[in-house]
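Memo subject: From amino acid sequence to discrete backbone structure tokens
Action wanted: Derive the backbone structure tokens from the amino acid sequence.
How to read it: Take the token row as a discrete description of the fold.
Attached in line: The record itself begins immediately under this heading.
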Amino acid sequence: MKNISLDMTKAACFLKEGAVKAFEPQVKAAQEALENGTCPGNDFLGWLHLPSSITPEFLKDVQDCANTLRENCEAVVVAGIGGSYLGARAVIEALGNSFAWLLASSAGGGREGAPVILFAGNNIGEDYLAELTDYLKDKKFGVINISKSGTTTETALTFRLLKKQCEDQRGKEEAKKVIVAVTDAKRGAARTCADKEGYKSFIIPDNVGGRFSVLTPVGLLPIACAGFDIVKLVEGAQEMEKACGKDVPFEDNIAAQYAAIRNGLYGAGKKIEIMVNYQPKLHFISEWWKQLYGESEGKENKGIFPASCDFTTDLHSMGQWIQEGERTIFETVISVEEPNKKLLFPNDDENLDGLNFLAGKRVDEVNKMAELGTRLAHVDGGVPNIRISVPLLNEYYIGQLIYFFEIACGISGNVLGVNPFNQPGVEAYKKNMFALLDKPGYEAESKTIKERLASDN
């Protein structure tokens, strides 16, 4: 079976000859530091060999829980933020029917017959939450509450609303069967609540950070609820774990090569990486990737800024800037080799739109030529292009893609010289928010901020 593959030729040509190969010693040292646990953030390396450690018994437990939710729920709300929802949503939307939510047997992005999969706890929009609770008023729904601490504001606020509504609609005893906690093993508000209420629960490993948690119950349970094959997803990740191992030669290790070319381009002044797809289903893969790389590398006034575009859609909004704007960018294109569906372009006798030259061609052929033509134009315009080829959009290859990006991120962050596994900057806004809301324990900060705001006015 084929694996995903990497083509760097249209990016390496922007660097001096041999520049990518010159990163081999740094990349090798970075990967060995990951393997030996000697890198910064070494207490968060549980994802590194997670795929190969997953057992059939564990997957069966996850699948059994998913089946209970599927049998008893018309809708399942995934309450989580950041890595606690982006990975699951990325996989579900990549594999699902784009219009499932319009179907009578709506699968919410999942397979037909699955419950509607909804995502909440990732914002504090009052309209969003009010509309969500209105939608659920006449639904048998369940909740997957994903939070290590149980006190993350966005998720905790949402879970409190949903818990009460679920209990009011289904009764407390029935609600226990359809509320699942994915949380810390021993501590935190979510763990305390799960134990007190008797919810089925799964553990988020202490040594796996949120953005690396797709292959834990954080991602696997919602994906299974949506009707997708988590066994195949894990198998794909296991294959990529072997293909990107520390003993795989640099010339054959696509994760090592990706880490090298990114750092080479960054050193040459390319400060922005745009993740591009020509398949709308991959929009949330890009969103997940942005958190993975942005939160891992954006430290100490360093790091490539991760951006994304959906082509050809965004060629009609961002195409001009990419073609002729400041030359501080490079593109990484995810290219799907073969769509899952086949659609031929029809002939029209009047040919008013002048498109009869496309009659009989697959729509994907037009899309592929748009991809090729755009890559050539952008390279000619001074934009290095990396291409990641994915044979098909299925569980196996999405599993490969997930692990590829994870291991490449760990290597790349270490080459950059930062700790890829912490996120100290995320706490700054929280302190200000809690102080402004007069949260107990933030009295000093509240006084300082209010004095600052008064002086600004």
Remarks:
- The chain has a mean pLDDT of 93.
- Strands lie at 5-7, 75-79, 116-120, 141-146, 179-183, 200-203, 272-277, 305-310, 329-336, 385-390.
- The chain has 18 helices and ten strands.
- The radius of gyration is 23 Å.
